[in-house]
Amino acid sequence: MTTQPRPFSAADIARRLPDLAALTGVRSGKQTYYSAYQRSNERLQLTVAAMDSISGALVHSVEGPRALLEKIVRVASHHLDARWAALALTSQALPSTRPRFLAIDSEGAMIDAAADLAEEVTRAIQRVETGDLPARATQNADGVVVVPMLLDGHAIGGLVAAPRDDLPLETPDLSVLHILANLAAVSLHTGDLYRTGLAQQRRAHQLFEEVSEQARLLSVRDEELRAAEQRLRVADQRELLENERRRIALELHDSVAQTVLSAGLVVEMLRGDFIGDASGAGRRDVRPELDRARDLMSTATEQLRSVIYALNHERGAENVASLPELLAEMAAQHRPHLNVRLRVEGSPVPMGTAAEHALARTAGEALFNVAMHSDAGKALVRLCYLEDCVVLRIGDDGNGDPAAMRRTVRLARRGAADGRHRGLLGMALRAEGLGGTLSIRRSRAGGVAIESRVPLSGVTPGPTRTPEESDA
Predict the structure, then answer these.
(1) Among 42-46, 69-73, 305-309, which is the least confidently predicted range?
(2) Three-class SS of residue 42?
(3) Are residues 41 and 115 in the same domain?
(4) Are 27 and 37 contacting, i.e. CB atoms less than 8 angstroms apart?
(5) Distance between CA 171 and CA 183 in Å, rounded?
(6) Per the confidence metrics, is the pTM higher than 0.85?
């Protein structure tokens, strides 16, 4: 037997109404649901259309964040069929972001100037700017919807709109507005980060340009400083050389020249005595020797005068820039009578004018002794730039005695030697004055080798060795 279904009563329909509303999203107090269902279906379609519009705006990032914000405001206005809608920031959030608000009117025109806003919209935006925002999306008694824009849990602005429909908003509508507000917050934050990064990039580029320019100017100033230092060094060297030339010229004029001239006068007087002495019949005729001595004295006097003139006369060369050039000049002065070779090893290092001048004088004194006393035919001047010192070595192939020369230095230190051997002591004192040592030994060519070893500036010299230890 088949049982016929019992029709639903009004009580059954009222009891089952919440279940139907939960399934369809339709809420109505009437017995028929078609109009409410139709409204829910329209909102669902609007929601899908809103999501589609938002996704389209997200992929057009080249238009910048403003394009996305305008799209969000338009979607919110269209979804709610609003009389107006606006997106605004609080006064403290993202201070560099412009514009601070965007609004759309009933005609679909976008507004970003406060003077063009209606009074109702102005009041709503002002509440957002002061931070008067609810914790979640709400609809006020006057129908205005306010949705906070949250970033890291803090409200940075709000999305406000005035729907035309008097019906309260459903949960899907609020969800759409929440999505729109969150997208707006992320877009604004991303835009602010982009602007900050762009500003920092421009600042970094500007700083790089400034640093590059400073480096270029520093390089130019460094070159100018080096050139000025070189000029000062040359000027100081020239001044020392000029002072030394004047001193030597004065000494030659006041002492040596006068002595030679006096000796010539004495020889001339003796010659006159021999010529005028009639009783000298038994004596050997020394007039030729006296004549020769007189001629030698005269020649020596002329040579001394030439040297004095050359020392007092200004040098033709403008620069004596380095110790190798000074030594080359010293060697050139002795080459007419002595085969002098100069050898420079290592990279020349400026030692200071006083040190280079002292070494040059040592070389000049040693070459003079070789030319005058050693009966040598060749001499080698060797200048070595080592890591911590400079070594000047003058060697010859003459017949000098290193042991006798070392003994002369010791006697001169005690004041027991005569004045003819002060040159060796002067060389030793110059080396010691620079923190170095002077050694005298046998050269490989068979003559004498004089070596002056001087530490470079800033290097503490090692223990001073005696000439005997250096010769070992």
Answers:
(1) 305-309
(2) helix
(3) no
(4) no
(5) 18
(6) no
Query: Look-up: residue for tokens 């223990």?
Result: 463
pLDDT for residue 264 is more than 80: no
By DSSP bridging, strand 138-139 and strand 145-151 are: antiparallel
CB 339 within 8 A of CB 222: no
Residues near 94 by beta carbon (within 8 Å), at least 6 away in sequence: 156, 188, 189, 192
Q: Are residues 47 and 186 in the same domain?
A: no
**Residues 166, 24 share a domain:** no
Q: Which of 46, 61, 76 is the last residue of a domain?
A: 61
Please tell me the predicted confidence (pLDDT) of residue 15.
54
Among 346, 355, 287, 300, which Cα is nearest to 323's? 355
| CATH code, 409 | 3.30.565.10
> For residue 46, what are the domain limits?
1-61
| 88 and 161 co-located in one domain | yes
Q: CA 309 → CA 154, 245, 304, 326, 447, distances in Å?
A: 96, 10, 9, 20, 34
CB 395 within 8 A of CB 444: yes
pLDDT of residue 62: 52
Domain membership flag for residue 214: no
Report the share of the chain in percent with pLDDT over 90. Answer: 24
Q: Please calculate the CA angle 105-107-109 and round it to the nearest 5 degrees.
A: 60
CA–CA separation, 124 and 197 (whole Å)? 32
pLDDT at position 465 = 39
Q: How many domains does the chain have?
A: 3
**Assigned token pair, 228:** 């000025």
